[in-house]
Amino acid sequence: MKMKKINSIGYGHKIIAISAVFLVAIPGISYLFSYLLKVAGLLLISKVSIAIGLLILLFLFLLLKIEFHQDKKLERYFENNKNTRLLLHNGFYECQACGNRNVKQEQKRCDVCGSLFK
Fold it and tell me: Cα angle vertex 69, ends 66, 74, to 5°?
């Protein structure tokens, strides 16, 4: 089974913002109202909100751990295959060392970076 690459650039800040709401905003507001209105139930809401915020941060931590593992795996793959060429749909090849997409089948070396193909 192939796993989709996780990239937290698009959503990492959103998860942090949501967790900040649960860790700071909701407990702060409920503590303030609990203090002003003398209602004990609002302190429970504050504790539950903090627990939810910590769970959200744990979820982000797990996503980042998976992402870093995937990045390391991809880095290892490209490091092991950098002196190869990849066949493209137009009949040319792409040099895996520099990304040159104008490599011909008969070429033994990349014109741009000079890497020798395996």
Answer: 125
Range of the structural domain that residue 71 is part of: 12-80
Q: What angle do CA 66, 69, 73 make, to 5 degrees?
A: 140
Do 73 and 36 share a domain, yes or no?
yes
- Structural domain tally of the chain? 2
* Alpha carbon distance 72, 55 (integer Å): 26
Half-sphere exposure of 73 (CA within 13 A, CB side): 9
State how far the Cα of 11 lies from the Cα of 5, in Å rounded to an integer. Answer: 14
pLDDT digits (tens, 9 = 90+) for 58-97: 999 999 999 999 999 988 988 888 888 889 999 999 998 8
Whether 101 and 73 map to the same domain: the answer is no
**Contact (CB, 8 A) for 12 and 66:** no
Distance of CA 21 to the CA centre of its chain: 22
Whether pTM exceeds 0.85: no
Radius of gyration of the chain (CA): 26
